[in-house]
């Protein structure tokens, strides 16, 4: 478990641009060191803001897009192409404008796909895909993602792990079907904490005043069942990327004055 580090940017636009620059460097370094890189994408406003900033960055051409594996932290279980699907939004924000290798892009199943409306089967299939991609060096049933990104909801949810929901107590499965989500749509697929914690780095993204309470609560370590964002950490690094409004309720010792 890595101790959370907090970086605060002036506003959400700067946060998205800085996070995109950070991500490009990370991917380029991983590709230089290991030949390829793997990322887990998040849905939500901040995750999509980062992808849009990446699409606009001239430095995006430094990434070898064909040597990048892309996974998702969660998905809204909706038909293929639905505008609310995290995959659809990621395509619009970035993926349709960069030369990714389709065989290395791993969206979670839609509700009209191979598993139809059986969300448990769809979750099990994703877990099997992750297990197949994990090498012996990973020592777990999921690959050692270079960076796993998570948007933080105003209720402290991450991926589709909501406060007090059964998914927050899952210790065996790496991917679960989520039923009765308090945020629409009610049916979702989500990585669990065991999968999230296998990442080298976990980055939590939060911008806006409506996230301030969630950020302060999660970083005061109340427990992952009550505040799921507090249970998301990476093996080597856990990074909270915030804008000033989202950081506004943090205690001063956690608010690094030097960040801009
Ligand atoms: O529904 C979801 O919400 C969270 C947070 O979204 P935000 O718009 O409040 O930033 C997101 O991280 C998750 O992937 C998504 O499915």
Automatic annotation (TrEMBL):
**Where in the numbering of this chain does the Glucosamine/galactosamine-6-phosphate isomerase domain appear?**
11-240
Kindly state a single biological-process term from the GO annotations of this entry: carbohydrate metabolic process
* Coiled-coil residues: none
What reaction gets catalysed by this protein? 6-phospho-D-glucono-1,5-lactone + H2O = 6-phospho-D-gluconate + H(+)
Write out the transmembrane intervals. Answer: none
Alphabetized InterPro entries for the sequence = 6-phosphogluconolactonase_DevB, 6PGL, Glc/Gal-6P_isomerase, NagB/RpiA_transferase-like
Give the keywords, sorted.
Hydrolase
Q: What role is this protein assigned?
A: Hydrolysis of 6-phosphogluconolactone to 6-phosphogluconate.
The name of this protein is 6-phosphogluconolactonase
Q: What is the lineage of its organism?
A: Bacteria, Bacillati, Actinomycetota, Actinomycetes, Kitasatosporales
Annotated gene: pgl
């Amino acid at each position: 478990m890595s101790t959370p580090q907090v970086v605060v940017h002036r506003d959400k636009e700067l946060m998205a641009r800085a996070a995109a620059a950070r991500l490009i460097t990370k991917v380029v370094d991983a590709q230089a060191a290991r030949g390829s890189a793997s990322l887990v994408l998040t849905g939500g406003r901040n995750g999509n803001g980062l992808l849009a900033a990446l699409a606009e960055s001239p430095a995006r051409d430094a990434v070898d897009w064909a040597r990048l594996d892309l996974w998702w932290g969660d998905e809204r279980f909706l038909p293929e192409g639905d505008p609310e699907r995290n995959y659809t939004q990621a395509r619009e924000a970035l993926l349709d404008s960069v030369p990714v290798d389709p065989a290395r892009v791993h969206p979670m199943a839609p509700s009209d796909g191979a598993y139809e409306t059986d969300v448990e089967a769809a979750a099990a299939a994703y877990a099997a895909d992750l297990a197949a991609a994990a090498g012996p060096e990973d020592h777990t049933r999921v690959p050692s993602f270079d960076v796993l990104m998570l948007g933080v909801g105003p209720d402290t949810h991450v991926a589709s792990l909501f406060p007090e929901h059964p998914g927050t107590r899952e210790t065996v499965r790496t991917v679960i079907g989520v039923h009765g989500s308090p945020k629409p749509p009610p049916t979702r697929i989500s990585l669990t904490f065991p999968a999230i914690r296998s990442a080298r780095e976990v980055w939590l993204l939060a911008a806006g005043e409506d996230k301030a309470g969630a950020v302060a609560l999660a970083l005061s370590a109340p427990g992952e069942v009550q505040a799921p964002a507090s249970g998301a950490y990476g093996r080597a690094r856990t990074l909270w990327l915030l804008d000033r409004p989202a950081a506004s309720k943090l205690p001063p010792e956690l608010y690094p004055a030097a960040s801009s």
